[in-house]
Amino acid sequence: MALILALLEHSEQHAQVRASLEQAGHEVLVVDSFARAKKVLRVHSFDLIISDAHLENGGSVFDFLRWVKDDPASNQTPFVLFSMKPSPLAKYLADGVLTTARVFGAAKYIIMTPFDAAAFTQEIAEVLPPPGTAVPNYSYEGR
């Protein structure tokens, strides 16, 4: 079981992501803003952070990713970008978002149209380290 922080601004995403991860045995805390995610991360540690790739309410996902990777308390935590039902523009920019995310230290960028709970859970399982092992370092020193 992993403790997962999910920054998801839209309630449709909250329910589907939480249900799929809890079904897999994980504990999930969902927040709906970059500011709330930072507050939570200042006092709690997580095994994984998932963030909506297209934040709209204060700060970009790259601001959040940089903040996580610059903080000594969270910089080893795997970070996953997630886009559910991306717009045509978001689909067009997906390769650039993926490349940038990797440079800043993200472990994965998941795009799902439509949401597939089983596939999502499998994608997340690939990022989580086996119990009792060190968390892999996805940070990029050249940033």
Question: CATH homologous superfamily - what is it?
Answer: Response regulator
H/E topology pattern? EHEHEHEHHEH
Number of domains: 1
Average pLDDT figure? 85
Report how far apart the termini are: 32 Å
Strand order within the widest sheet?
2-1-3-4-5
- Report the portion of residues in β strands: 15-25%
Named at the architecture level, the CATH assignment is 3-Layer(aba) Sandwich
CATH topology name: Rossmann fold
| Cα shape | globular
Largest sheet: 5 strands, parallel
How does the helix and strand content classify structurally?
Answer: alpha/beta
Q: What Rg is obtained from the alpha carbons, in whole angstroms?
A: 14 Å
Task: Give the C-level CATH assignment.
Answer: Alpha Beta
What's the helix count? 6
Helix content: 40-55%
Question: What would your notes on this structure say?
Answer:
The chain has 143 residues and is an alpha/beta fold. It has a single domain (3-86, 93-127), classed as Response regulator (Rossmann fold). The protein has six helices and five strands. It has a five-stranded parallel beta sheet, with helices on both faces. The protein is globular, with a radius of gyration of 14 Å. The N and C termini lie far apart (32 Å).
